[in-house]
């Protein structure tokens, strides 16, 4: 286990963060639509997200158990930083989407680690969500234009956009409830 967060804490923080994001988008719909439409090509958001992803990956390479590869730890840390810097320099198109995909992949590890060795069936809500994040992360890194198309589809109809935001708030409340009362 890399992280030592209990599942209840992970579910509460994930639910709270998701609820805040969905509620902001729901309450300030027009501003949120404009922000999401500009997000895929935003270099500012890309720089911030890529810096977070690079720092997280370098921290993982520097702290996790590498067993027989421990002697190469400095090279792995350097490789993580070099990959982040070279991505910023040479892969600028849709860099915000790609960095978001990397963060989703890294975040799914936290969720799965919190569910590790738990027997209760309700943990499967977080496990399934983690695997959804993994698939989304892989698509965002490999085919970032799909997020632009998905954003266009979701926000093409205000009813559909608000319905999906409302469902997202419902799932966030479900996670909050599970984290507080069940885990």
Q: Summed up, what is this model?
A:
With 183 residues, the protein is mostly helical. The protein is built from eight helices and no strands. It has a domain at 7-42 and 94-182.
Low-confidence parts, pLDDT < 50 over ≥5 residues?
A: none
The rounded distance between the terminal residues' Cα atoms is 19 Å
Q: How much of the polypeptide forms β-strand, as a percent range?
A: under 5%
**What is the helix fraction of residues, given as a range?**
over 70%
Average pLDDT score: 95
The count of strands amounts to 0
How would a crystallographer describe the biggest sheet?
none
By secondary-structure content and strand pairing, the structural class works out as mainly alpha
Q: Indicate the radius of gyration in whole angstroms.
A: 18 Å
Oligomeric state as shown = single chain
| Number of H/I helices | 8
General shape? flat
User: What is the element string, with H for helices and E for strands?
Assistant: HHHHHHHH
């Amino acid at each position: 286990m890399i992280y030592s967060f209990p599942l209840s804490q992970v579910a509460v923080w994930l639910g709270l963060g998701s609820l805040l994001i969905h509620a902001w988008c729901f309450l300030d719909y027009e501003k949120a639509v404009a922000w999401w439409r500009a997000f895929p090509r935003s270099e500012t958001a890309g720089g911030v997200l890529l810096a977070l992803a690079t720092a997280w990956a370098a921290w993982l390479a520097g702290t996790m158990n590498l067993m027989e590869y421990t002697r190469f730890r400095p090279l792995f840390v350097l490789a993580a930083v070099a990959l982040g810097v070279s991505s910023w320099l040479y892969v600028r198109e849709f860099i915000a989407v790609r960095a978001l995909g990397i963060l989703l992949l890294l975040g799914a590890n936290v969720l799965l680690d919190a569910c590790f060795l738990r027997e209760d069936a309700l943990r499967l809500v977080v496990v399934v969500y983690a695997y959804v994040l993994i698939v989304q992360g892989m698509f965002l890194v490999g085919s970032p234009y799909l997020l632009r198309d998905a954003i266009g589809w979701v926000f093409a109809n205000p009813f559909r956009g608000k319905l999906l935001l409302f469902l997202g708030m419902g799932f966030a409340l479900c996670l909050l409830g599970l984290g507080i009362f069940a885990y």
